[in-house]
Amino acid sequence: RHRALQALVACPTASIGTLERHDLAPVLASFPEPIEGGVHYCGYHHEGSFGAASYLVVRERGNILVDSPRFARPLVRRIEALGGVRTMFLTHVDDVADHAKWAAHFGCERVMHADDARGTLRGLERLIEGDEVVSLDDEARIIPTPGHTRGSACLLYRNRYLFSGDHVAWSGRRGRVVAFDGACWFDWRVQTRSMERLADFTFAWILPGHGRRFHAEAPAMREAIEACARWMRSVDMIRS
User: Fold this and answer.
1) Which residues, other chains included, contact 101 with Cβ-Cβ below 8 Å and sequence gap of 6+?
2) Most buried of 41, 69, 94, 189 (most Cβ within 10 A)?
3) How far apart are CA 184 and CA 162, in angstroms?
4) Which domain holds residue 231?
């Protein structure tokens, strides 16, 4: 029942209801939900981000909010209690939703790739450029992974947690790591090269905006990424 009520709270379109009244206080207090190592799942998906998941990294040197959850007061209060937000990393243009509200409330620095900075996003505090890896600090690095969009990027935290946006995720239906061939808005071949590049990095978690999370220690994770890249190449050959 708790999971069902979490889904009710997290639903981006308020499409889930109940026949009976329930005490939602424990459910509201369950977000952000711990995953591992200070990494939390925010819940409170936003329709403006196409229902994407967002994450909070809690750490002494300043918390990182990855993509934008709904700016909901219960979540705001919980994040305040966890230390607020120092940096907001936006993986790509589709999942920014309430970013301006979060920035105004916490005074956080917003970071994304310049190639996805359209309209008001051009005014973000920090825009990265090019294909080189950019360090936020010695724990967190931004890996440009263009393809899904021109400016898509992943955040690698402690060489263990990859916040992948819409670049890569686990598919329960296919039973493997995938890219979204039906939702590639820039260039599939470029995204394939970005996937091949990821195999050179060490991580044990894929934490996506859409799709399911995936956990595997090395070398299983590397093999999963390499297999995904091979599949992407085969899709490209079929299309050609």
Assistant:
1) 71
2) 69
3) 20
4) 2-239
